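Following the same procedure, the fold was encoded as tokens, giving this record:
***
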Amino acid sequence: MIGEPVDALAFARSVIHRYQIEEIDVAFGIRVNWLRKAGNRRFVVELVKQFCQWRVENLMHIVDLARAGWGVADEALRSLMLEYQNRGEVMPTYLAAYSMEIISGRIPKIRGKQKADYFLRDMAVLCTIIMVMEKFELAATSRDGKNICACLVVADAMAAENQAIGYKAVAEIWRKYGHAAARDVPGQAVLK
């Protein structure tokens, strides 16, 4: 390993701190913070709204997902309804039908934790894992979660920056998304 575990932790903390204070332009003129739940959700809602407007089949698919209980889809559709009404435009038939279901009480507002609330945070964690792996030549994970590895360093850095999610959650982010990123990390052709 290049450097000491303390150096790796200090480095990871500085990266996490930067993610905490910076706002980024993600798309559609939206500025969000990587680690704030509200910014993550706002970004995904806007992405879903744009997706709905590309093709009617996309809108139909998102309405089906909202009916099935995906809160982000429901929130995006409700926002689209308001925009159409504000402009005095006729809604697409499928969106109008969903609006009628809401007004009649058939579709309750969906609440609770959603994966979309953490998408950008997970990407920030993934990027930090990769940077720690590259700079300190660490494996992504350890078999027991106790030996020094990039995920453990990042979990400790998150805790030190009041963003505690724990080693298991950081390792799960690596497991979900790391396969795509690992190809570009020296010595990580095979996931560890």
Q: What stands out?
A: The chain has eight helices and two strands. The beta strands are 23-27, 30-33.
